[in-house]
Design goal:
two-stranded antiparallel sheet; mainly alpha; 3% strand; 399 residues; 14 helices
């Protein structure tokens, strides 16, 4: 992994950043992301973060069950495996004992319908397990991944479930098919963002998609059609009146959980309140669905993030879902492709550095991370430690 600039080069960058920051403060001017100087990369912080990841992975390795799982759940196991492989450490490579055992455990949940799940949370589990197998990159998993991709494309709420574009579930993914066999159950932004991430990651193995090019509607492939349907759902989760046909929509640009619900609650005027983790999920999902970063929907989500910048809380929910927020933030900002976020006051934030600093501050003595707020299982140290390690690894990208 690259460690950045030499010490002398780094010191010159520090001087430059401080000089520019002081000049901006003295003149009381704001800067845009394009105008902000490229952040210098602190080698000592990189080493500290690598040590923190090592402690986190040791904690996870020690808590692995004999069956190769964490918490006897394929999705939690897949998140841990993705974090282990992503560390680049030989002790947690694809041929290491903990990773090999975990991958075997994940594969054991491959279902006849192509999904990878236990009894529940079919789309969610398949998405996360597929991403772990993609991260492992083993040729023997190609057929299994092809089936998982077909399962996810088939699980999208669309005409195949008897839905039209007018249905508010259209284009999204839920945890599983509705018990009645009609439509989808619990279509929401969280499931949708994981499904889109997995489908995007699986594009390289989609040989049938390339072969089918020109045979779909408008000459589009199955994946392209899925992205188009997903955008319809994403628009109904974004507070942007020009594109959202729901009566509650405001114009702040942020995202809610689904077209009928925000986990941050309603606004005073009867709308749905935007919050950060879903806004990052929306930003990432729009980019994965091939919207340009200059598209007004993408720009509006990014503007919401600028106005609510924080690495200490999940804006709109405070400490609830905080580590899910960190992971989603890292993935979304990498997808957006900027190293600096300029907040509403014109202050430039090196998000990679700030995110790593915060995670190093709150790591516990045994190497794990845990959230005192128990919403969405974040008192489970195995899950939260996987989130935190993955967030650090995303912050390492282009370091």
């Amino acid at each position: 992994m690259k460690t950045g600039q030499s010490r002398s080069s780094f010191l010159r960058c520090v001087v430059l950043v401080v000089t520019v920051a002081c000049a901006a403060a003295a003149a009381q001017v704001t800067v845009s992301a394009a105008e902000a100087p490229a952040p210098g990369r602190d080698e000592s912080l990189l080493r500290e973060s690598q040590a923190a990841v090592d402690r986190g992975l040791r904690f996870l390795a020690q808590s692995q069950k004999e069956n190769g799982s964490w918490q006897d759940q394929p999705a939690v196991t897949a998140l841990v495996v993705t974090a282990m492989i992503g560390s680049g450490q030989e002790d947690y490579g694809v041929e290491s004992r903990p990773v090999t055992a975990a991958l075997d455990y994940i594969r054991s949940f491959a279902q006849p319908d192509g999904g990878i799940y236990d009894r529940f949370y079919q789309s969610y589990s398949t998405s996360i397990c597929a991403m772990a197998l993609v991260e492992a990159g083993l040729p023997g998993d190609k057929a299994l991944l092809g089936k998982a991709r077909a399962f996810l494309l088939g699980a999208q709420a669309d005409e195949s479930e008897g839905l039209s574009e007018d249905d508010i579930q259209y284009g999204g993914w839920g945890y599983e098919p509705h018990p009645s066999g009609e439509g989808m159950h619990g279509v929401d932004m969280s499931n949708t963002q994981f499904a889109l991430e997995a489908i995007r990651a699986l594009e390289d193995i989609a040989e049938e998609d390339a072969a089918a090019a020109g045979t779909g509607e408008g000459g589009k492939t199955q994946t392209e059609l899925a992205y188009g349907r997903a955008i319809t759902f994403l628009q109904r989760c974004q507070n942007l009146k020009a594109i959202n046909d729901q009566p509650w929509a405001s114009d702040d640009g942020g995202f809610v959980y689904k077209p009928t619900e925000s986990k941050a609650g309603p606004t005073e005027d009867g709308g749905l309140r935007s919050y950060a983790s879903m806004t990052y999920a929306g930003l990432k999902s729009m980019i994965y669905a091939r919207l340009d970063k200059n598209d007004r929907r993408v720009r509006a989500a990014h503007e919401w993030i600028r106005r609510h910048w924080s690495v200490r809380e999940n804006p709109g929910l405070d400490q609830q879902g905080l580590y899910y927020y960190y992971l989603t933030m890292g993935r979304a900002l990498n997808a957006h492709g900027e190293d600096v976020v300029v907040d509403a006051d014109g202050q430039a934030h090196d998000w990679r550095r700030e995110l790593i600093d915060q995670l190093l501050t709150v790591q516990t003595g045994d190497g794990s991370w845990v959230n005192e707020s128990g919403r969405w299982m974040e008192t489970m140290p195995e899950l939260v430690t996987a989130y935190a390690v993955l967030a650090v690894e995303h912050a390492w990208a282009s370091w």
